[in-house]
C-alpha cells in the first residue's frame, strides 16, 4: 500500500502541476465570473420561489383566519337565536379554521425568516459579484503587465544568450581596430614624409657644397683649408682620384 500511495501522490502532484501551468489567469477569472453570475441567477430564482411560497402561505393563513372569524360570528348568531346545536357546529368549524391558521402562522414565520436570510445572502452575493468584476479587470491588467514584463525579460535574456550580441561586439571591436590601424598608417605616412623632406634638405646642402667646390676649382681659388703656395701642390696625377670621386658622388646625387 505504501508504494501505491506514493505513486498515486506523485501522479496527483504531476497532474496538479500540469493544470497549474495550463491555467490562464484571464480565462480563469472570466470563468469564475460566469459561474458567480450563474449562481446569482439560481439564487434569485430560489429567493423568488421562497417569496412566492411565503406569499401563498400568508394568503392561506389570512383566508383561514377570516373563515375562523366568520364561523365565530355565526356561532354567536346561532346562540343568540337559541340554536345551540347550530352554534356548536359553527364553533367546530371555527376551531378547524383556527387550527389551520395557527399551523400556517408557524409555517409563515419560518418562511419569513428563511426569505429574510435568502435576501441578505442575495445582497451579499450581488455585492461580491460586483466587487469580483472590478477586481477581475484589475487582475487582468496586472496579469497582462506581468506577461509583458516576462516576455521583455525573455527577449533581453535571449539577446544576451545568443551570438547576435557577441557578433555585434566583435564587429565593433573590428571597426575600432581598423580605425586604430588607419590612424597608425597616417602617423607612419606623416613620419615618412618628414624623413623625405629631411633627406631633400640634406641633399640640398650637399649640392650647395658641391657647387661651391666646383666654382672654386674652376676659378682657381683656393678653398678654405687648402695648402698654401710653396707647399705640396696638386698635380694632375694627384687630382685625378679626387675628380673621379666627385664624379661618382655627382652620379649618386643625380640618382
TrEMBL record:
User: Which key words tag this protein in UniProt?
Assistant: Coiled coil
Q: Glycoprotein among the record's keywords?
A: no
Q: Which organism is it from?
A: Merismopedia glauca CCAP 1448/3
Protein name (database record) = Phage shock protein A
Instruction: Spell out the residue ranges making up region: Disordered.
Output: 216-242
Provide the family line: Belongs to the PspA/Vipp/IM30 family.
Annotated coiled-coil positions are 101-151
* InterPro entries recorded: PspA_VIPP1
Q: Name one Pfam family in it.
A: PspA_IM30
- Identify the domain of life: Bacteria
PANTHER family assigned to the protein according to its UniProt record, in alphabetical order: MEMBRANE-ASSOCIATED PROTEIN VIPP1, CHLOROPLASTIC, PHAGE SHOCK PROTEIN A
